[in-house]
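S.,

Sequence below, as promised.
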Amino acid sequence: QVQLVESGGGLVQAGGSLRLSCAASGRTFGGYAMKWFRQAPGKEREFVARINWSSGSTWYADSVKGRFTISRDDAKNTVYLQMNSLKPDDTGVYYCTAAPLGSGWSNFDYRGQGTQVTVSS
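The prediction came back faster than expected:
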């Protein structure tokens, strides 16, 4: 059974930092892209960042480029999202997802339960 378990969310002041973790289990993810999405109340789900597990190639939404860094630890089967210079607009529930390479940017096969990030002004 595939599981993605996020952690690391919380309340932080604007300008602060958080590191989200996504512990993945139940299969190997060599042919997968790991993606972080977020969703704020009343808003649509928004792509945040992506890393291809095998190659380590990364992509970011324009809104987070230069502030967020996605990475993975093969030994721990964990994906991280380091978030710096946080803004109130970064507030939302952050979801870790896994999608086969070649699937659409908004698609995923697996999703975690989400972790809340709240940035106060």
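The CA atoms of residues 99 and 108 lie 4 Å apart.

Coffee later?
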